[in-house]
Fold this protein.
Amino acid sequence: MINLPESMKNDKELINALVESGNHDYFESLPIQTIIQFKWEKYTKDFFLKQFYLFLIFFFVNFTDIYYSILSKEIDENSVITSDGRNPLIYLPMKVICGIILLYFGIYEYRQMLKKESIKDHFSEIWNYTDILLILTYFMMVAFDH
């Protein structure tokens, strides 16, 4: 028997118990689906939407920066950059915006790492590698861009 008002709190005991049980049939019951849907709407959905929107901002600003960089450089027949006509008032704010967003993602990734029992647990998921790789490659790209 599930105490619905008690299970609707923001603790993870019910969800963890369901996951640890290994019985996926529990998830097909209407009360469990209702609890999960409620928790998704109330606690989780907005967080992931915010993360998604921040990444979209990063993606479009970074894409615009790269496109502007390509258009503003003159390259000779030997593929050597002969002049860089970029305006710092245009490209620096784009790099700052992207850097701030990636700094936020880096802090979030670090907090996730601290919550795990070990660093090895954190890197057991491929997504954590991609997150850190994105952050490192962006800052290396900025360093080599100048």
About this structure: Residues 4-145 form one domain. The longest helix spans residues 30-72. DSSP finds six helices and two strands in the chain. The chain has a mean pLDDT of 87.
